[in-house]
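Course assignment 3, question 2. Fill in each field.
Student: A.L.
Task: Predict the tertiary structure for the chain below.
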Amino acid sequence: ETKDPITAAIGIVQTLQTIVSRSRDPNDKLVVSVTQIHAGSTDNVTPQNAYINGTVRTFDKKVQELVIKRMEEIVYHVKPVLSLCGFKVMEYFTWNKLIFRNQLYFF
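Answer field:
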């Protein structure tokens, strides 16, 4: 049984993009950017882990809370579907209470 963190990462990234288009008031200012995906270092071998990094930019605390909630729902929904086991989910780093940097790790 192969656990493929790349497939999970792709599913998560695609679904994260719907936060801006489907989960918030269109008048709220919000940018969700996936800026890095890292997995594996060789050909023909399924990697054991994947790393996704990005930023969330908004000025509204309620929008921040909504984004965090939606990100957690997305990640926890993808995990059982793809039979992933044991992964460090998210770390949030806040600067000026305006920007979140989100990291997702799959082990």
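Instructor remarks: The longest helix spans residues 61-81. The helical segments are 5-22, 61-81.
Grade: pending
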